[in-house]
Amino acid sequence: LLQYCLSGHPTLPCNVLKFKSTTIMLDCGLDMTSTLNFLPLPLVQSPRLSKLPGWVLKDGSTFLDKELKECSGHVFVDSVPEFCLPETELLDLSTVDVILISNYHCMMALPYITEYTGFTGTVYATEPTVQIGRLLMEELVNSIERVPKAQSASMWKNKEVQRLLPAPLKDAVEVSMWRKCYTMPEVNAALSKIQLVGYSQKIELFGAVQVTPLSSGYALGSSNWIIQSHYEKVSYVSGSSLLTTHPQPMDQASLKNSDVLILTGLTQIPTANPDGMVGEFCSNLAMTVRNGGNVLVPCYPSGVIYDLLECLYQYIDSAGLSNVPFYFISPVANSSLEFSQIFAEWLCHNKQTKVYLPEPPFPHAELIQTNKLKHYPSIHGDFSNDFKQPCVVFTGHPSLRFGDVVHFMELWGKSSLNTVIFTEPDFSYLDALAPYQPLAMKCVYCPIDTRLNFIQVSKLLKEVQVMNSLLP
Amino acid sequence: GAGQDVGRSCILVSIAGKNVMLDCGMHMGYNDDRRFPDFSYITQNGRLTDFLDCVIISHFHLDHCGALPYFSEMVGYDGPIYMTHPTKAICPILLEDYRKITVDKKGETNFFTSQMIKDCMKKVVAVHLHQTVQVDEELEIKAYYAGHVLGAAMFQIKVGCESVVYTGDYNMTPDRHLGAAWIDKCRPDLLITESTYATTIRDSKRCRERDFLKKVHETVERGGKVLIPVFALGRAQELCILLETFWERMNLKAPIYFSTGLTEKANHYYKLFITWTNQKIRKTFVQRNMFEFKHIKAFDRAFADNPGPMVVFATPGMLHAGQSLQIFRKWAGNEKNMVIMPGYCVQGTVGHKILSGQRKLEMEGRQILEVKMQVEYMSFSAHADAKGIMQLIRQAEPRNVLLVHGEAKKMEFLKQKIEQEFHVSCFMPANGETTTILTNPCIPVDISLGLLKRETAIGPLPDAKKPKLMHGSLLMKDNSFRLVSPEQALKELGLAEHQLRFTCRVHIQDPRKEHETGLRVYNHLKGILKDYSVQHLPDGSITVESILIQATAHSEDQGTKVLLVSWTYQDEELGSYLTSLLKKGLPQSTP
User: Fold this and answer.
1) Where in chain A is the domain with CATH 3.60.15.10?
2) Does the beta carbon of B187 lie under 8 angstroms from any beta carbon of chain A?
3) Residues B207, B214: contact at Cβ < 8 Å?
4) In B378-513, where does DSSP find H-type helix?
5) Is the pLDDT higher at A463 or at A223?
6) Which ipTM did the prediction report?
7) Candidates A345, A348, A375, partner chain B, best to mutate (most B CBs within 10 A)
8) If pLDDT is split at 50, 70 and 90, which confidence band does B262 have?
9) How many CB pairs under 8 A join A and B?
10) How crowded is residue B149: how many other Cβ atoms within 10 Å of its Cβ?
11) pLDDT score of B464 more than 70
């Protein structure tokens, strides 16, 4: 058993396992924190951003002032945002036989792997993972492609030049390997290589290894994987949750008696209790709206947003917010809301029971029906006619570098009545806000991360009685 | 049930000591005890739970699940019942419907109650497609997509390396709302397949659809009423999609109704379980949900007497009771009207009678109903036809086939065809009959580590991709098998060792001296057996490993030499190889 770790990001793993002469890639997460070094992509011409001064070196030389801009003491790259790919030098990725995906957040680098490395194998993932993963990719591609940027900065990446830059640009690693976003044809080609699997389905690989996905309780269709030969059992536990939210609960029993347990995707904010954070989210939201302000929630188009909407569904009447409009803006908002209702088999027991009635499993169906929640593909078109303030807006991207969220940051940033509430844990909220400083708007950090924390991990390890555990 | 018959599907499979009951249906043709399977076949006086390891329900049609509450709550069964999620969702609704018709309308007592249906459903475990469900340590089941109706599945039942596949009802051609059945090459020992359309090879679906639309259109144009008896879920949705698109395209105004309050609910199930429908519907559901109908409205009983044309979908599908039968009685007398039977009708039902040409029906109370309306039959029921059944057999490659859920005569024909084409045995037992199928189970044997090490040390290095021959003694003790070294076996069994030696004579034409022949043999073997130790001993004999070869003169013929080849039983393989090698003679010229 040989393992290579190709990603430096703790919750967006990419590992390669060599086992019984089979090469298996476990997840291919895309580290998007690199985009924090770039200027936001505004949907509407932003005078503030376009007037930012170019960055000048200490010795006064100005040759970088087209590529780098300065904003409140921070330096940003003025270019199409780029992503930090999984390591491709460590081993020849064309030798990878299969890729196992554990959840839709951990497949965002898939087009880079399947389309650029000579990969000829098969990708395995569950149906919700593929469908929602497609939506996340579509949103990403769409939000970058709709703001064409003439400039693609490369001078600053020169090793000699980079040395002279201020942190964090100076310390960014492997910047020459950073890549621009993929395109929709590449996404479609990558997704066509995926074979759909169900929980507890046994898949034979070349007669040597058997792999089986198990419910991991973290997201719709999220899975852990058992990789076993006749006499050895390796468990890959990635992005798992023991809390009861909307997905099917985690299957722990099947992990028992593993020879090796590979553990990734643990929460990075173990002190933030998700329930407490949801409570704080609701009270901050209510307070802002009551004072006549708007609330901005930067989020992904699927996942925690379903839980937040469900909480709000129960909360708004008691908090007297029945007349406040909730807007969900994303090119895939409609699809995400529709898809969430058709995966009954992948949901927790309570939601499954609802489908048997038959009723939609998520209450956001009712929020939409009663016009309390409205969804739009973008801020252009219908939204501009319907838009009423004060309101609550859910939109992406959580990095605040692209997507409709950029517009709302520019629009509402100047007023202290408004609040931006961060719920996604992947990005540091201070870094995300840096190019919008100075900011009058209130900022609340309520990260909701249901993934395993250290206490839960040690309990899990005790229960499943593993021989060895590995934390890449 | 379902042995040379359609109705009350219920099959008991005993496989490697496990007992599995497949389906638990009712029979639409009977109103007496025969409507349910006879569970005394399972056990005369024990509890069913003790005898059955699990029950599997293939889909929600009543002829496959209609007896389930009776079986679990009235006869008594507390073990697990497996079905897919959509089946689990829809099954209780149809059971409740069935109960209402039987108890409330026909006034029968001693039938299962609503509470029993609920209690029965609590025993149900829902399964995913392709999920391997471990019923217990040895028994596992796996569901495959079957088409037919929403949530219909085929099931593979596996114990060790023995397996059975039960198809339930399936459809090998995708239709307007469902995909086609699919199974991998799982090579089961037995495939139990339905054979409703064992002899039919249906023309293309498009033709049937065009025919159907033409008939409906013509009747409506001349002011007639069209009755389409259907079951609430399944064919109804397919035909609704068909008529909806046709009405839209042709801009027709005649009303279309769906008879029971179940429609909207039924359509809702299709919306929520859209992942079980066909690719096209799944792909476009965000933009346009095919199960939201514009032209099809809910039916009210009073509408039946309205003047003018209309199309009504009414339940149940075989005209054996309920609203479809009521409307049929109202409309039967008018030759302008038409009834279209889109599916199979079981013997004994009104549907079956009018399809077989009967035009005077005796109804309840000796009343005679004269049927003047046009009667059309159109096979829309989503069963595999003969071609489809053969296709499934080709896909799964079973070693034996067993036909159920069809008529004896038609089965006979299909059985011959299957035996001819696939050279596998095909069975078609009647109800109550038992078929025994012999299998070739593989038996795992534990090898002792010492023997394994010793054997792998001999000869070329082991290759994971090639089988390797090993020598040892097989011990069968306490129901387990072990391969150990002969010495250990002798020791464990307290036996003394006997040596067994083979000697073989090989005649060779060679006029030379014995020792020269010996040398030729030596050179010959040395040249061929590069990996073995071949030695020429001073006394003229040759050894290959432990095998001894001696050349002696023939007592009568000077031109012939006799080679004595001698080996122990342990070296049988090499010994017999050498013998056959030497029998081929020596090369003409020695180097």
Assistant:
1) 2-33+81-152+162-267+452-470
2) no
3) no
4) 386-396, 408-422, 449-457, 486-493
5) A223
6) 0.86
7) A345
8) low
9) 55
10) 28
11) no
* 8 Å CB contact of A127 and B275: yes
Task: Give me chain A's average pLDDT, please.
Answer: 92
Sheet holding A233-238, edge to edge: A203-205, A209-215, A223-228, A233-238, A260-264, A468-470
Q: What is the CATH number of domain A274-445?
A: 3.40.50.10890
Q: Phi and psi for A105 in degrees, rounded to 5?
A: -75, -25
A197 touches chain B (CB under 8 A): yes
- Let me know: does B298 contact B323? Beta carbons within 8 Å: no
- Residue A352, min C-alpha distance to chain B (Å): 9
Q: Does the CB of B273 have a partner CB in chain A at under 8 Å?
A: yes
- Nearest CB to B89; choose among A199, A342, A356: A356
- Does the pLDDT at position B449 exceed 70? yes
- Two tokens at B348? 């004994």
Q: Does domain B501-584 have CATH number 1.10.3470?
A: no
Q: Which of B164, B150, B198, B138 is nearest to B56 (CA)?
A: B164
Are B404 and B3 in contact, with CB atoms under 8 Å apart?
A: yes
The pLDDT tens digits for B117-169 are: 999 999 999 999 999 999 999 999 999 999 988 999 999 999 988 999 999 99
Domain boundaries, chain B: 11-201+382-427, 205-377, 443-457+469-497, 501-584
Answer yes or no: CATH 3.40.50.10890 is held by domain B205-377: yes
Nearest of A431, A446, A357 to residue A168 by alpha carbon: A431
Q: Let me know if B514 is exposed, middle or buried by CB neighbors in 10 A (0-12, 13-18, 19+).
A: middle
Assess A408–B contact: CB distance below 8 Å, yes or no.
no
Record the tokens describing residue A468, joined without a space.
Answer: 């060895």
Q: How far apart are the first and last CA of chain A?
A: 14
Cα gap B37→B22, rounded to integer Å: 12
Which residues from A are below 8 Å from B265, CB to CB?
358
- A202 touches B: beta carbon within 8 Å: yes
Predicted pLDDT of residue B101: 76
Q: Which of A21, A197, A200 to mutate to test the interface with B (most CBs of B within 10 A)?
A: A200
Which residue among A343, A358, A360 sits closest to B89, beta carbon to beta carbon?
A358
Whole-angstrom distance, CA of residue A448 vs CA of residue A446: 6
Assess B133–A contact: CB distance below 8 Å, yes or no.
Answer: yes
Assigned token pair, B472: 């040892």
Q: Which CATH number fits domain B11-201+382-427: 2.60.40.10, 3.60.15.10, 1.10.10.10, 1.20.140.10?
A: 3.60.15.10
Q: Where in chain A is the domain with CATH 3.40.50.10890?
A: 274-445
The answer as to CATH 3.60.15.10 being correct for domain A2-33+81-152+162-267+452-470 is yes
Edge to edge, what strands does the sheet with A2-5 contain?
A2-5, A15-19, A22-26, A98-100, A122-126, A194-197
Point out the residues of B that are catalytic. 194
Distance from CA of A294 to the nearest CA of B (A): 30
> Which residue out of B60, B128, B274, B292 would a mutagenesis test of the A interface target, given it has the greatest number of A Cβ atoms within 10 Å?
B128
Predicted local distance difference test score (pLDDT) of residue B591: 41
| B130 CB within 8 Å of a chain A CB | yes
Distance of alpha carbon B69 from alpha carbon B72, whole angstroms: 5
Amino acid symbol at A456: Q
Interface contact B128-A345, CB threshold 8 A: yes
Q: Name the residue among B88, B131, B265 with its Cβ closest to that of A201.
A: B131
Q: Compute how many other C-beta atoms are within 10 angstroms of the C-beta atom of residue B151.
A: 28
- Give the model confidence (pLDDT) of A415-456 as tens digits: 999 999 999 998 999 999 999 999 999 999 999 999 999 999
Read off the pLDDT band of A127 (50, 70, 90). Answer: very high
